[in-house]
Structure formats: C-alpha cells, structure tokens
Amino acid sequence: MEKEKITLPIGNNKALVFEADPANKEEQDFAKLCKEVSATQPQSLQDFFTRLNDLQQKRTPEPIRKMGRKM
Predict the structure, then answer these.
(1) Which of 14, 34, 46, 62 has the most Cβ atoms closer than 10 angstroms to its Cβ?
(2) How many domains are there within the chain?
C-alpha cells in the first residue's frame, strides 16, 4: 500500500515531508498532530518541534482498562 505524503510548511522557505501509512492509526494520529502544529505557522524547525512536544504533552493518553478478577 502506498504511503500518503504530508508536506508541512516551516517558515517561508522550508518544509517537512512526512510519509504516513493510511492503514496505520498511530501514523495517522501523528500526522494530524503535525498538521495542527503546522497550522500555527512555526518559523523554524526548533519552533515546530517545541510546539509539537507541547501539544503532545497536553494530550492525555487514553485510559487503559485494567483487567481484574470479579468477585
């Protein structure tokens, strides 16, 4: 299966290209985060990754269901 190319503009003359597998949910979720960060128009790679890190920290992980014995 062919990967989807996602171009993320950085500043005026740079861009990141991310290739995401359409069948992989984790890659699609990451691509969505990258698009959100890119929409804020970061001016440098450092700014992009700083914003991406901040966004990832704000997201709470999905709760993990604990399996236990029922009495």
Answers:
(1) 34
(2) 1
In angstroms, rounded to a whole number, what is the distance separating the alpha carbons of residues 50 and 42?
9
Check if the beta carbon of residue 55 is closer than 8 Å to that of residue 39: no
Q: How far apart are CA 30 and CA 18, in angstroms?
A: 10
Whole-angstrom Cα distance, residue 44 to residue 23?
Answer: 30
Q: Is the Cα torsion angle 9, 13, 19, 22 positive or negative in sign?
A: positive
Domain that holds residue 22: 4-59
Q: Does residue 11 belong to any structural domain of this protein?
A: yes
Mean pLDDT of the chain: 88
Which amino acid, one-letter code, is at 7?
T
43 DSSP 8-state letter:
S
Which pairing describes strands 14-20 and 4-10: parallel, antiparallel, or unpaired? antiparallel
